[in-house]
Write a structure and sequence with these properties.
This protein has 3 helices and 3 strands. The protein is α+β, with helices and mostly antiparallel strands and about 80 residues long. A 3-stranded antiparallel beta sheet has the order 1-2-3, with helices on one face.
């Protein structure tokens, strides 16, 4: 019996704390890949499932990122002063 090869991919995701409660979450590198959850843990689990489903349906050449490439990316807040 042939074994399936498993690849581990990493994506940066954005969690948005919603005013009515819970979190919305999306993946900038995967257009349209969004989810939500009542808690951070639920939102994280839901976006992991959404990514897995998304990747089953898209052209893998367009969206696969190696863990090495993903580890070179990071997000950080940048404060900008805008004067009116």
């Amino acid at each position: 019996m042939a074994r399936k090869q498993v690849r581990v991919l990493e994506y940066n995701v954005i969690f948005v704390n919603e005013p009515e409660g819970g979190y919305s979450v999306y993946v900038p590198d995967l257009p349209g890949c969004i989810s939500q959850g009542e808690t951070f843990e639920e939102a994280k689990k839901n976006i992991q499932e959404a990514i897995e489903l998304y990747l089953k349906e898209v052209d893998k050449e367009l969206y696969e990122m190696t863990p090495e490439e993903a580890s070179q990316q990071f997000m950080a807040p940048v404060r900008v002063h805008v004067y009116a």
